[in-house]
């Protein structure tokens, strides 16, 4: 057992619009994500299946509001929402957003490699 402290998790992606901290814990990846208002990650997911993230995520919105582009149409999430994002999604931050999510490590590692241009 352990407490997961955001500041102790390594940053794997950081620019003016996105900060992603991830750590593998027992075969699941915990991710702390910050997106600035206006950030649209749908361009970054081009080249993945259906040009969307194929990895499932379970988590909670901590701050802000975002639109999730999905195969089935747009879905909206805001601070306080507990979510499940199935395969086939790309987030667009409508406000400054923060969320924590949990994802299968193997699947999410492939997405991270793609986002970093390593795939």
Structure in a nutshell:
This protein is mainly β. About 10% of the residues lie in helices and about 45% in strands. The protein has a six-stranded antiparallel β-sheet with strand order 1-2-3-9-4-7. A three-stranded antiparallel β-sheet has the order 6-5-8, with no helix packed on it.
Describe the structure.
- With 119 residues, the protein is mainly beta.
- It has 1 helix and 9 strands, in the order βββββββββα.
- It has one helix spanning 105-115, and strands at 11-14, 18-25, 28-35, 57-63, 65-70, 75-78, 82-85, 89-93, 97-104.
- A 6-stranded antiparallel β-sheet has the order 1-2-3-9-4-7.
- The N and C termini lie far apart (33 Å).
- The relative contact order is 0.25.
């Amino acid at each position: 057992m352990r407490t997961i402290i955001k500041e102790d998790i390594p940053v794997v992606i950081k620019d003016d619009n996105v900060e992603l901290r991830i750590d593998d814990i027992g075969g699941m990846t915990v991710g702390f994500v910050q997106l600035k208002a206006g950030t649209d990650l749908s361009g970054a997911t081009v080249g993945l299946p259906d040009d969307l993230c194929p990895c499932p995520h379970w988590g909670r919105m901590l701050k802000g509001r975002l639109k999730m582009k999905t195969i089935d149409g747009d879905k909206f999430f805001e601070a306080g929402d507990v979510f499940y994002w199935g395969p086939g999604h790309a987030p667009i931050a409508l406000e400054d957003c923060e969320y924590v999510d949990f994802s299968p490590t193997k699947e999410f590692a492939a997405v991270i490699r793609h986002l970093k241009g390593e795939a």
